[in-house]
User: Which sequence fits this backbone?
């Protein structure tokens, strides 16, 4: 299987893996464990090319200067209450249709073949999970997943930039690990932004009417719906 071309950032495969692993951690629900890893994340990302280290460094600055309570509240407001910022990639491709269930199974089977076991209740299309798989599991197949869902990925980035969300910097770094957006991708992004994901009132509803997760994945009280588990 041939590799997708690297973006011309001068990054090596090892550096791309580092950036994706860091982004995976930074897109999880903020907690004390994440804040405790900040020195390690600084050390790992600082030597990366500027297209990667710059946005990741800006987000690390934000983590260091914001209280955990505010970080957690902002995470829920950003990713759990706004469909356009959802981190579940198959939502953008399949929306509220049966096809999303099939796509989730394909993700799980791909991870299983690579030896990646998901935690109970963890949805395989969460961007943090996909990035972890790409960084530590199978880079070629992971990159292809990101490429196949590029329109959704870029729409998340644009939505976060529009909100001036600090998490936009993380999505900018993720985008910088991929080849430049091509004309076909731009057309798909514009179409998705205008029309939204496909809809179907029967079958698997990935987010329901007021949240992003289906009922069996709804969190307990006080637990964020958008965080991978």
Assistant:
């Amino acid at each position: 299987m041939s590799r997708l071309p690297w973006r011309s950032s001068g990054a090596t495969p090892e550096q791309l893996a580092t950036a994706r692993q860091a982004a995976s951690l930074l897109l999880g629900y903020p907690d004390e464990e994440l804040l405790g890893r900040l020195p390690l994340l600084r050390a790992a990302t600082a030597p990366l090319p500027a297209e990667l280290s710059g946005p990741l460094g800006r987000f690390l600055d934000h983590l260091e200067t914001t209280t955990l309570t505010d970080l957690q509240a902002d995470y829920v407001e950003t990713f759990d209450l706004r469909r356009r910022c959802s981190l579940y990639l198959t939502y953008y491709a399949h929306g509220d249709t049966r096809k999303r269930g099939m796509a989730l199974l394909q993700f799980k089977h791909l991870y299983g073949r690579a030896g990646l076991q998901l935690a109970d209740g963890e949805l395989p299309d969460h961007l943090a999970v996909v990035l972890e798989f790409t960084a530590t599991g199978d880079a070629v197949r992971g990159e292809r997943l990101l490429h196949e869902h590029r329109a959704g990925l870029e729409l998340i980035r644009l939505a976060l930039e529009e909100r001036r969300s600090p998490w936009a910097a993380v999505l900018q770094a993720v985008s910088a690990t991929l080849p430049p957006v091509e004309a076909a991708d731009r057309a798909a992004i514009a179409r998705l932004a205008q029309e939204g994901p496909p809809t179907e009132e029967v079958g698997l509803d990935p987010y329901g009417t007021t949240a992003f997760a289906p009922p069996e994945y709804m969190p307990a009280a006080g637990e964020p719906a958008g965080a991978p588990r």
Notes: Confidence is low (pLDDT under 50) at residues 1-6, 201-227. The two ends are 31 Å apart (CA to CA). Residues 7 and 180 are 6 Å apart (CA to CA). The chain has one domain: 13-197.
